[in-house]
User: Which sequence fits this backbone?
């Protein structure tokens, strides 16, 4: 059964609009599904969702080329614990019974093809997923996935980087229906020393010439201070590796999320 398209796209855009009206960039925490274990993941997700405008849940994958060592290790641990693509969607369905916050799934294309594109979209929509982030799918390479996502009410988000040409930025920006994900640095995910901005302001100025959706920035944001830097120029702030590192150190993920969410306030 086809799910109405209004849900995912509209819910995501409404979350950005609410944050903007409150003088904030939208806070978008990331967590790998099934990390640190399938049993512990719901409590971690609850702690993040308590402060999130949207949440990004990563499907564990054995070859995550765009992820740094922190998220790679988290994916390996989740896979070793039995968290599959289908299990990820089951975990999200359970979260949906407790939270109305938009949830987007970050996935490489192989897990989608392993399940089957139409079956994946059906299961994702039924689980309450609102959108997909597709880091290794150029929007001009496989229209089937984007078309199926739209059919099942799922927004799609693609990525740009400082190395993206103006033509590529235009192509990607016009293809996004959820939000545009701008990578702050060239390379893989992970917290970094120093400013999180880099070439972000110029990249966002170019992207906004073409984008009709909000623009979020990720890679390198690790605390309230770096979140504040990004919030001054972006519509949303994505944070992932910092939370996985906090779990590894036995730190309070909820407290870190609260601080970063406060850093996203711009007014």
Assistant:
């Amino acid at each position: 059964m086809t799910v109405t398209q209004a849900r995912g796209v509209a819910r995501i855009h409404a979350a950005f609009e609410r944050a903007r009206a409150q003088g904030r960039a939208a806070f978008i925490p990331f967590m790998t599904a099934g990390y640190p274990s399938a049993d512990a993941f719901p409590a971690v997700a609850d702690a993040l969702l308590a402060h999130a405008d949207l949440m990004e849940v990563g499907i564990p994958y054995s070859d995550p080329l765009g992820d740094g060592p922190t998220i790679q290790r988290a994916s390996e641990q989740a896979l070793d614990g039995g968290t599959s693509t289908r299990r990820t969607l089951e975990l999200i369905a359970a979260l949906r019974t407790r939270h109305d916050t938009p949830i987007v799934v970050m996935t490489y294309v192989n897990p989608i093809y392993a399940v089957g594109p139409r079956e994946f979209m059906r299961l994702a929509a039924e689980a309450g997923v609102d959108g997909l982030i597709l880091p290794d799918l150029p929007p001009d390479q496989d229209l089937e996935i984007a078309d199926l996502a739209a059919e099942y009410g799922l927004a799609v988000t693609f990525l740009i980087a400082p190395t993206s040409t103006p033509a590529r930025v235009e192509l990607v920006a016009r293809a996004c229906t959820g939000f545009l994900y701008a990578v702050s640095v060239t390379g893989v995910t992970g917290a970094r020393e120093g400013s999180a901005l880099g070439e972000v302001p110029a990249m966002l100025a170019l992207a906004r010439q073409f984008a009709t959706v909000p623009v979020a920035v990720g890679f390198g944001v690790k605390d309230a201070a770096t979140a504040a830097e990004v919030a001054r120029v972006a519509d949303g702030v994505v944070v992932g590796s910092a939370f996985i590192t906090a779990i590894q150190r036995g730190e309070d993920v909820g407290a870190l999320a609260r601080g970063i969410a406060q850093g996203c306030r711009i007014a």
